[in-house]
Amino acid sequence: MRNTIEILGVKIDRVTAAYALKRAEHLVRTPGVSMIFTPNPEIVMAAYEDPEFRDILNSADMCTPDGIGVVYAAKMLGTPVPERVAGFDLTCGLLESLRKTGEGVFLFGAKPGVAETAADKLREKYFGLNVCGVHNGYFTDDENDEIIRQINESGAKLLLVCLGAPKQEKWIYANREKLTSVNLCMGVGGALDVFAGVAKRAPEIFIKMNLEWFYRFVTNPSRLGRFAALPKFMRTVRKDAKKR
Ligand code: UDP
Question: Whose C-alpha lies nearest to ligand 1, atom 8?
């Protein structure tokens, strides 16, 4: 039984990082395609304005509270979640687990060449990890069937889809029934860029102090528009709560 709360109509699981990992480990070993999404405030806002996207998020097997804004919003609504569960950290935990069991992971997304570099780095970081296929995230509709064929042929149990939101969630939802070997799909945005070393994650201290967003802004001021969306998110959550 899931324990969820709703933020702007999006169901978020009240999970700790440890429980989320346990659940992901269970899903990756359970036949039939499961979906895990990791909504941050931007994603929740986008879903509020796009009912199709909201329904896709709500059809997931788990949505973890990624982003401190989601944690604050949950608290403001009087339905707190235990902690932030970043998609990136959950992915790392799951890869460590797959390393031990030998189940394969397919890396799908990012610019040409990035997934290959990420695969090399991941094999070093998680010694013995079975990265059984990669594909970049820039493709035409005509190429979609070939990508599915490659994923199926790889025998991967875990599919990391890194196309940015909402493209990755919509792709997973639309294609999940064509996947024959995969048990778990996760939409994890820029994770391959970080694994490949193309983008950096904030130093641990920023993450611990819930200031990852600030680090990202300082190191990449072009993201200003994305952070400006945060106060709007909190205002919208407050207004929406009054309506209900
Ligand atoms: N991307 C992709 N195909 C697209 C658009 C984006 O593969 O058509 C990739 C992009 O190269 C990047 C990732 O999706 O690796 C999205 O990164 P971003 O930092 O925007 O994601 P976030 O984690 O912030 O959602």
Answer: 138
| Residue 159, SS3 per DSSP | strand
Instruction: Give the model confidence (pLDDT) of 10-30 as tens digits.
Output: 999 999 999 999 999 999 999
C-alpha angle with apex 37: 77 to 206, nearest 5 degrees?
70
State pLDDT tens for residues 123-160: 999 999 999 999 999 999 999 999 999 999 999 999 99
Which atom belonging to ligand 1 lies closest to the Cα atom of 188? Answer: 23
Is the CB–ligand 1 distance for residue 193 below 6 Å? yes
Supply the range of the domain harboring residue 211.
Answer: 4-243
Using CA positions, which residue lies closest to atom 1 of ligand 1? 163
Instruction: Please tell me what DSSP assigns to residue 201.
Output: P
- Say how many domains are in the chain: 1
pLDDT confidence bin for 100, thresholds 50/70/90: very high
Q: How far is the CA of 138 from the centre of ligand 1 (A)?
A: 10
Protein residue with least CA distance to atom 6, ligand 1 = 163
Does pLDDT of 108 surpass 90? yes
| C-beta separation of 32 from 61 below 8 A | no
CA-angle at 176, arms to 170 and 182, nearest 5° = 125
